[in-house]
Amino acid sequence: MRQARTDRSTRQDYLYGSSAPSLSRGSQTEFEVIPGRRGASSDVATLPSSIIGTAKAVVVVALVIAMVCCVRVGLSAASRLNSR
């Protein structure tokens, strides 16, 4: 079985209550931002408003059906508890 070395040369010099070591500025990654703007002929495709409206209507109908089903199950469970 291999033993871990416990001498101070292999451990970080951190003591409870001491402050964290400061990092040098040279260790940070450098990056540049290239300014630009979206032109009138953008490549982003958008869906027609009729499809978005239809999708919203489908979501609303699905939520209403889910709520009705939850109420029905709750009432069924409550009526079975009272019949015992």
Beta-strand portion reads under 5%
Q: What's the N-to-C terminus distance?
A: 66 Å
Order of helices and strands: H
Provide the low-confidence segments as ranges: none
The global form is flat
Structural class of the secondary elements?
A: mainly alpha
Strand tally: 0
Largest sheet: none
Helix segment tally: 1
Write down the overall mean pLDDT. Answer: 77
Radius of gyration: 32 Å
How much helical structure, as a percent, in the residues? 40-55%
Structure characterization notes:
This protein has 84 residues and is mostly helical. The protein is built from 1 helix and no strands. The mean pLDDT is 77.
Provide the fold topology.
Layout: H1 49-82
List keywords for this structure.
84 residues; flat; mainly alpha; 40% helix
Gist?
This protein has 1 helix and no strands. It has 84 residues and is mainly alpha-helical.
